[in-house]
Amino acid sequence: MKLKSILSATTAFAMVGTTAFAEKAEVQFWHAMGGQLGEIVDKFASEYNAGSDSCHINAVYKGNYTENMTAAIAAFRAGEQPHVVQVFEVGTATMMAAGDKGAIYPVYKLMEDAGVDFDPSAYLPAVISYYTDTDNNLLSLPFNSSTPVLWYNKTALDAAGVDVPTTWDEVEEAARALKANGVEKPFSFGWQSWSNIENYSAWHNLPMGTEENGFASLKTEFSFNNDAVVNHIQRIADMGKEGLFAYGGRRGDSRGQFVNGETALWINSSAYYGGFKKDITDFEFGQTMLPVDTAVADKPQNSIIGGATLWVLNGHEQAEYSCVADFFQFVSAPEQQAYWHQNTGYVPITTAAYDLSKEQGFYESDPLTDTAIKQLSLNAPTPASKGVRFGNFVQVRDIINEELEAVWAGDKDAKTALDEAVERGNALLRKFEKAND
């Protein structure tokens, strides 16, 4: 990809006040990046604005992923939609359906109309394949992509006399040794559907649903109540009864358990690296690949991404869309993506950004930070490990959360809970199919 520099203009620094901004095309960019991540998004927008004499990006935090997506949909219905909205990966099918109804301006078409030299092959295959249509056209721009890894407290593991686990049997053994050595909540995780059903399935090359996990057809049905996943969830529940596992909530709610040393083994996004590097000062931590369940597979397949992409909504002026295309070039440039990767833990979305990070010595100064990249590219994705594209999946994840929480509380066994999650989830798949067929 040829990524032109847009940082040469200096006159923008002297332009102040509303009169100056009135001369620029204004682009509304709604995102879901809070805290340190939001600060970097604001940094990118400010740097772009300073270097452009014709465009101004107004980056606005609209809450978490679900809140941001819901706000954008409501705004579109009211005719007040932003130009760009950040949508997490499980919203892809919903956004594609909206595209079929004319709401979306596909990125490949945006770049073509703007006359931008845009090469999708510059993006990492594991990232871009998630967001293409059946003709391999890119629908939204990859921005922040991550995958779950196993975070570990090396200091606690060393004190307990155990190695970093590579299998689920070893996770259980390590948790038992950690507990005996005074670690209160040895094992936990976040985003439990993503980490322990969606990625567990892909990592072991198990389909989560029919029709290539929803990529091939809206007629897909869930199959994650198979014996392998049921046994995996039941194992974790049994660990909970023994005091080896402590559920800490949905999303990243249990992050504090790991940071304060209550938990020594924690599965969640690679994107926690930047925050951990800043916040963890009392022990040495690291990350490693997801454990393998040797009862299911001899070796792992590949993990799948989380995070989000930038979707463009129809209904604005072409001059403003030219600014969107220009801004997309800017945030995709190796310099920006390498900075994003190195300061957050999200994977670099382009090969050039990965190469730049290597050239800058990042993986030598910050070892193991390429774990997520290695996981995603471990093997060529199969239909079971390419990703998931299910309609109404935001709501389905809520169902999975409810059923898993019933397991952790001891109210249901894993088989009952997953059977009910599949039944309830399939009802939402049929509802989505009916609305979009």
Automatic annotation (TrEMBL):
It comes from the Bacteria. Residues 1-22 form the signal peptide. Keywords: Signal, Transport. It holds the Pfam family SBP_bac_1. GO terms for cellular component: periplasmic space. The keyword Signal applies. It is found in: Periplasm. The keyword Transport applies. Part of the ABC transporter complex UgpBAEC involved in sn-glycerol-3-phosphate (G3P) import. Binds G3P. Belongs to the bacterial solute-binding protein 1 family. The complex is composed of two ATP-binding proteins (UgpC), two transmembrane proteins (UgpA and UgpE) and a solute-binding protein (UgpB). PANTHER family: ARABINOSE-BINDING PROTEIN-RELATED (PTHR43649), SN-GLYCEROL-3-PHOSPHATE-BINDING PERIPLASMIC PROTEIN UGPB (PTHR43649:SF31). This is sn-glycerol-3-phosphate-binding periplasmic protein UgpB. The gene is ugpB.
